[in-house]
Design brief:
163 residues; mainly alpha; Four Helix Bundle (Hemerythrin (Met), subunit A); 55% helix; globular
Length: 163
C-alpha cells in the first residue's frame, strides 16, 4: 500500500507546496492500487474516463507542466500526441495498470528532479508567463481534482472507499 506524506507540518511555502502535491500524487496511486487491469480499463461514464487513462493523463500533466512548460524541455508523450490529444484515454483491458502507475510515479520523480533547488519565483521557460509557484498550485489542483474522480470510480468498481 502506498504511504502518503504527513501534511501536518510546519514549514516554508515551498516545503508546504511540495508536501501537499506529493500527498495528492500518493492519493492517486492509492486509489488505483489493487484493481485488475480489466477493472482499471472499465468505462463507467459516458466519456472515455478510466482509472488507467487517468493515470496516463496525470503522467502527461506532470511532464507537460514541469518538463515542458517550466523547464522548456521536450518530453515523450507516451500515449497520444498533438494530433491525437485523447490518446492517453484510449485504454483496453490489455493495458497494464501497473505500467501506468509506474509511469506516473516516474513522471513525478522526473518533476522532483527538475525542481530541485528551483525558486518559486522562477518563470516558466517553455510555457505561459507563470511562476513555479503557480505551476505547483495548478498541479495540486489538477491532481486533487482527479484524485476525487478516482475515488468515485474506485467506489463504483469495487466498493472501496476511504481516504
Amino acid at each position: 500500500m502506498t504511504n502518503r506524506p504527513d501534511t501536518h507540518i510546519w514549514g516554508g511555502e515551498r516545503e508546504l507546496l511540495d508536501v501537499f502535491l506529493d500527498y495528492q500524487r500518493a492519493t492517486v496511486v492509492l486509489k488505483a492500487e489493487g484493481l485488475s487491469d480489466q477493472d482499471a480499463a472499465r468505462r463507467l461514464l459516458p466519456s472515455a474516463t478510466t482509472v488507467t487513462g487517468m493515470l496516463r493523463h496525470l503522467a502527461d500533466v506532470e511532464r507537460s507542466w514541469i518538463t515542458e512548460a517550466f523547464a522548456g524541455l521536450s518530453y515523450d508523450r507516451r500515449h497520444g500526441s498533438d494530433e491525437d490529444p485523447d490518446g492517453e484515454w484510449r485504454v483496453t483491458a490489455d493495458d497494464s495498470l501497473a505500467e501506468a502507475i509506474a509511469d506516473y510515479q516516474a513522471a513525478c520523480a522526473e518533476s522532483r528532479t527538475i525542481l530541485t533547488g528551483r525558486d518559486l519565483d522562477e518563470q516558466c521557460t517553455g510555457g505561459p508567463p507563470a511562476q513555479l509557484r503557480w505551476v505547483l498550485l495548478h498541479l495540486i489542483e489538477e491532481t486533487a481534482r482527479h484524485a476525487g474522480q478516482l475515488d468515485v470510480l474506485r467506489e463504483l468498481l469495487d466498493g472501496v472507499t476511504g481516504e
